[in-house]
Predict the structure of Polymerase/histidinol phosphatase N-terminal domain-containing protein.
Amino acid sequence: MSNSSHAAVHSRPSSAPKRVDLHCHSDASNKAAEAALNAISCPECYSHPEEVYAQAKQRGMDFVTITDHDTTCGVTRIASRPDVLVGEELTCWFPEDQCKMHVLIYGHTPEDHEHLQRIAPNIYDVAAYVERNRIAHSVAHPIYRQNDKLERWHLERLLLMFKGFECLNGAHSALHREAFEPVLNRLTRQEMQKLSERHGLLPRWPEPWFKARTAGTDDHGLLNIGRTYTEFPPETRTVEDVLQCLREGTCQPGGEAGSSIKLAHTFYSVAVRYYSRHIMSPGMKPNLAATILQTIAGERPAPTKAEFARLALKGKLKKVSRAVLRPVHKVREAFASSWHGRPAGASSSADVLARGGDAATAPDVSGVGGVSGTGILKNLFLESAKRRLSDHPALRQALEAGLPPLGEHAEMFRYVSGINKDVSEGVAAAITESIDNASFTGLFDSIASILGQQFVLLPYYFAVFHQNKERHLLRQITGNPMPRDAASLKVGLFTDTLDDVNGVARFIRDMAGQAEKAGRHFVVHTSTPTPRFEVPGRKNFAPLLSREMPYYSELKLNLPPVLDVLEWADRQQFDVIHCSTPGPMGLCGWMVAKMLRVPVLGTYHTDFPAYVDRLTRDHRVTNGTVAYMRWLYAEMAGVFSRSKAYRFNLRDLGLPEEKLHTLPPSIDLEKFNADLRDPNVWSDYGVTQPKRLFYCGRVSVEKNLPMLVEAFKKLCALRNDTALVIAGDGPYAPEMKAALAGLPAYFLGYRNDVQLAPLYAGSDLFVFPSRTDTLGQVVMEAQACGLPALVSNEGGPKETVADNVTGVVLPAADPDRWCQTIDELLSDEPRLQRMGRSAPQRMSRFSLEATFEHFWSEHVNAVRTPDPDDEAVALPPRAPLSV
């Protein structure tokens, strides 16, 4: 689609700086740098020069150029216009090691082009020729490692040889500019002299410390032309004025940096055009799905309502025809069956297996909703695309302005993200229906749709990783490190639990609160349909799917939108990642760390292998969990344990001692203290017994609550003045209520912090028999409120209780001992009061602020980098091996 036929040219005030997008491509860039694309004859760009010119003008460019790879064939097709300057992206090489570079050349003659192509294998000859002939130029994306050879040694030589440098490239992230432009800022006469002596090269061009700084979109998909540009003085009138400014350096970069979304959309734009030109049969009219994709990419104008109706009707007629012909196919199948001696309707084993079924029992199905194979994906896509389009008016506005909707990057990504969610829910429903109907074919079709869905999203996944693949090297190349201290560090924490009543969620909320107080950059990432807590720095992603956990129906397994998480994290550019849980969000954190090339740390909050073993009683599932945990924590630069006891568990997972850190326990004494006692609290809950045992936590088997039930039954046989109060909920609650029926047991459900503190402070004993908790935050909360605690001798909680001082440590599997100890303490009021006074005194040692600073300092240590070695830079790269 030609933009010139749809859009009016934007005009700018004559007093405004003049703008030129100094780096963009046309269909003359017809050979890809990637061998895979060349193998299928896919060029880098399909943009017609006239379309490039039209889009540049529409976005307000005063002058236009095209810089195709090693050719001027594209720009010469529009060179007759007075506002067009000839350009080219010259590929040249360092002869020492074949390091590949691109230099943008402007205003050169055909003779210059031919000569530069001949001398391109030696970048020193290129630099000499460009200076000798005063050719305007700019080193393109100067710290992009095109063939993974660029080092600081090469960059310093480029600074000595060339006048112009592209500081802002619309296809590369802002990280490139942030790392490179300070290099130009610190150039002085003395610095250039130092570089000259180090490399034995004389600087070229007058005032070599003053560089021309340019910018361009590097557009290949006819999406972004004019969004990144170089600005020239307002008095710039002619092409020759532009060239002279480039020679003198009187210009500056402006506009947008690149992004992962931009890069992905460029891939889609080229892919749609490749499909239209090379895959579709000549003369073939596109179907509705192809029409939508071509329109989004700007390959064709938007279909009229009549055309949309015709395409939709055509699709419905195909469905009707399949339904009409289905009986005919069955008759033909019956005839073939009788011919081969099989009963009508019977299928051979080969027929059944070809449909993906079981030869013994194979239902005759053709997919969910009568749609099979990737048709499921296509139908879900079309339905969602049509329904959601009205929510994105910016896409329609771009189309009406003659611009491709695919170029509205943020809006298009939100559109795609919504479609992805709809498709995921649709495929999940199709899988459920296939299982319910025992449809093997439908199940395999649905699974194939998942693979197809992820294949379609591959450009996004590739882009977020590609844009960050050199993130860790950019400042190394420029010798411009960015030291991270406690104040500047950016930490992203990923967790599968934050809104639950458990120690993990409590710890994360406490750390987030402390980070806010200290002014630290700390973002907590979750994925839940309904967030309950407002936590400082929280970023929640609505899950693609939410299902009950196997063996634990009370908990939800939320599948996060991985693509949205990666795109968000790409924009945030965290320095270190913390995986707080090993679930889906923890895995997302690991992926983010891999994408950003940053360290990942984790916390061993929960003994998951023990949980799984108690819930499933299946050693295979337990062993699988152990293997997974061993792999995940081995990927981390450091792992925190909430207690010393669980360092042994981490050693059992094969982690070396130097990776292990123990977090000191901590408690928020403003929320939990003995002064919060409320004498009326029990009447509010209908508790009439004068003695109260209190439990707070998840009501589940792995908390060793069946043992507590037995102990309480035995206690009730000894005395009738004691109630057991349970705060929390979980899968064991119905069974526990039934087991304690007729006894003074009260189930309060989930309670928040404000409600919990008076319950702690008004109870007589805190009973917490868990054998799997790594710390037991509730045990500390209880003691802070003056409540003595009884804990098991297994797990981490025993480390927070001073035995026979602030509570008692008891055998985990001995209900008789628990019953006896409880009875003795309730009968010994002076002893109970001494423990109640000692408990808050001991808890006052565990400062929340100190724990946070320890937590934060370990993250700072994980990202410390050594200072650059100036002496090593002087060494030339190793010569390439001769073959």
Q: What stands out?
A: Confidence is low (pLDDT under 50) at residues 1-9, 342-369, 879-883. Residues 267-303+347-464 form one domain. Residues 305-339 form the longest helix (35 residues).
